[in-house]
Q: What sequence folds into this?
């Protein structure tokens, strides 16, 4: 047990470095063409479409597109799930050290913006941390076939436990489906046959073209155009300010 704990802490520390490096790259990089008048880099961000996994009113004035990796502990942190678990402690210590008032933004976004129809939440895959990230993304799409993408999404984040150490192995992904009362025959067939392997790869490639280098990475769209970005595990106060400005 002690070795596993040390591995989890080491993995989280490595991810701190990944987040810092990603944030620096995202802040300093610019698309080869130009930037908009407000300084936001122009990208080839794909518009929200029927192939996206969404939550909320499709006609909402503002859309929040989140690129995430199910193994990313910082993505787990912004969801507000299992923040007190031992696996999350190094991440939370880092975030609170950077900002003592740091708070997860996703619960507020869902409860106070998505549910009232003001914001459409869009999840997109960017599984850059390894094979288990990719398989988790594929499994979540298999759950979507049965109308339970968001339930499976939350279950994955609530069960993070290290990176590529078996937490999101195929047997575990299948057990998650069983625990969520999915039709396991259909789910297992979907995962085993790689029904969404290409779709996940395509979304990851699209994210790279949009300039995504790490997770979490968000794009706040107003009337279909990029209004602001979320670069890393930003706190609720910062994200709320950006969304409120987009809603004006």
A:
């Amino acid at each position: 047990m002690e070795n596993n704990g040390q591995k989890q802490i080491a993995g989280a520390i490595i991810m701190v470095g990944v987040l810092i490096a990603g944030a620096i790259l995202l802040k300093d990089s610019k698309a080869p063409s130009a930037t908009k008048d407000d300084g936001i880099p122009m990208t080839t961000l794909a518009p929200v479409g029927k192939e996206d996994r969404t939550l909320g009113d499709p006609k909402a004035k503002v859309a929040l597109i989140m690129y995430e990796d199910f193994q990313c502990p910082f993505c787990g942190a912004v969801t507000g799930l299992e923040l007190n678990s031992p696996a999350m402690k190094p991440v939370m210590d880092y975030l609170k050290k950077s900002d003592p008032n740091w708070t997860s933004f996703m619960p507020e976004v869902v409860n106070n913006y998505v549910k009232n129809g003001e914001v459409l939440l869009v999840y997109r895959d960017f599984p850059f941390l390894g094979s288990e990230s990719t398989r988790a993304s594929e499994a979540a799409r298999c759950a979507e076939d049965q109308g339970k993408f968001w339930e499976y999404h939350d279950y994955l984040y609530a069960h993070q436990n290290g990176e590529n150490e078996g937490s999101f192995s195929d047997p575990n992904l299948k057990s998650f489906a069983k625990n969520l009362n999915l039709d396991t025959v259909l789910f297992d067939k979907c995962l085993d046959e790689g029904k969404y392997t290409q779709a996940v790869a395509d979304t990851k490639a699209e994210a790279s073209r949009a300039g995504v280098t790490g997770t979490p990475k968000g794009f706040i769209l107003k009337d279909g155009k990029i209004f602001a970005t979320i670069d890393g595990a930003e706190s609720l106060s910062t994200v709320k300010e950006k969304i409120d400005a987009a809603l004006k």
Remarks:
- The CA atoms of residues 93 and 100 lie 9 Å apart.
- The longest helix spans residues 2-28.
- Strands lie at 53-55, 62-68, 119-125, 217-222, 225-231.
